[in-house]
Write a structure and sequence with these properties.
alpha+beta, globular
Length: about 140
């Protein structure tokens, strides 16, 4: 759970220049994701990094998880914690649907209630932030 919290913090915190904003359901800014994968909190402090190869790191550059090209989300020990399908459906490790990332960046829970917004953010990154690292 500690690793999940760190990953969530990383995903909520994203950049200054070329940064995409992560917002709560009431449009409050919770963080930023910069185009280079730097994750910042709402105060622009770096909380983590997502590398081009899918490695998720904390602010000290320690690996805390992985996003695979097929949408599989793994912990640092390579155990699967969930999946993000190409259509934006987010599933837990048991393949139960836990939410959706819409093309317009709207993030919904499994009941289709909006829990936040991640306009312009890669669906896999947004899913990790909202569902596996609780950035909402």
């Amino acid at each position: 759970m500690k690793k999940i919290a760190i990953l969530t913090t990383l995903l909520l915190s994203i950049g200054f220049v070329n940064a995409q904003t992560i917002q709560s359901s009431n449009y409050g800014t919770t963080g930023y994701i910069k185009s280079d994968g730097t994750i910042q909190n709402s105060s622009y402090s770096t909380v983590g990094h997502i590398k081009q190869d899918g490695t998720i790191q904390n602010s000290s550059y320690s690996s805390i998880g992985y996003i695979k090209s097929d949408g599989t989300i793994q912990s640092s020990s390579y155990s699967t914690v969930g999946y993000v399908k190409s259509d934006g459906t987010v599933q837990n490790s048991s393949y139960s649907t836990i939410g959706y990332i819409k093309d317009d960046g709207t993030v919904q829970n499994s009941s289709y209630s909006t829990i936040g917004y991640a306009k312009g953010v890669d669906k896999r990154w947004a899913a990790v932030a909202f569902f596996f690292f609780k950035f909402n």
